[in-house]
Write a structure and sequence with these properties.
By secondary structure, this protein is of the alpha+beta class. The protein contains two helices and ten strands; from the N terminus they run ββββββββαββα. A hairpin with a 2-residue loop joins β7 and β8. The radius of gyration is 17 Å and the shape is elongated.
């Protein structure tokens, strides 16, 4: 039976047989090479694609290690935005499709309040990957970071069927 291990970077609980922290991407083992540069040591594991990357190919965004490709994703509480729309029925439909495929989607709705600057659609709060242009009056569908590739594949199939 494996014992509990706590990530030295974020404090997340893992097992002693884990190679990296699933919450922040911190590596627990040495001598892991970057997937793109086999001569370079990896500095973390992207929490979305679960691949190891060096400093040149990955970075920490709000304390979460992401590869360059995934560094612009909006991430809240360990879950990444995979779909968004002001249409609640559409978001619920996509959510049910993801659930039917065994994924764990969650609807996240960050409505504008008087605390927002730049109009009612923009916020001072910034999640990992948030840019100045993120609209907050959107109903967001988020999934655990490790489920992003599968969720995006399913959503693309749904969008292709509706065309």
């Amino acid at each position: 039976m494996s014992e509990k291990l706590f990530c030295t970077y974020c404090g997340n609980e893992s097992t002693d047989d884990s190679e990296f922290c699933g919450k922040c991407g911190n590596l627990f083992i040495n001598d892991v090479q970057c997937i793109n540069h086999s001569e370079r040591d990896a500095t973390g594991v992207c929490t979305i694609c679960l691949q190891a990357y060096c400093k040149k190919c990955g970075l920490r965004v709000n304390n979460i290690f992401l590869c360059d490709e995934h560094s612009s994703y909006e991430i809240v509480e360990g879950m990444a935005r995979v779909f968004g729309s002001p249409d609640e029925a559409l978001v619920n439909y996509i959510k049910s499709c993801l659930e039917n495929e065994g994924l764990h989607p969650f609807i996240y709705n960050r409505k504008a309040t008087p605390m927002h600057l730049g109009g009612s659609d923009h916020s001072l709060f910034r999640a990992a990957g948030d840019s100045q242009n993120v609209i907050i009056n959107e109903i967001k569908l988020v999934v655990p970071c490790s489920e992003v590739p599968e969720a995006e594949k399913i959503i693309k199939e749904i969008e292709n069927q509706s065309e």
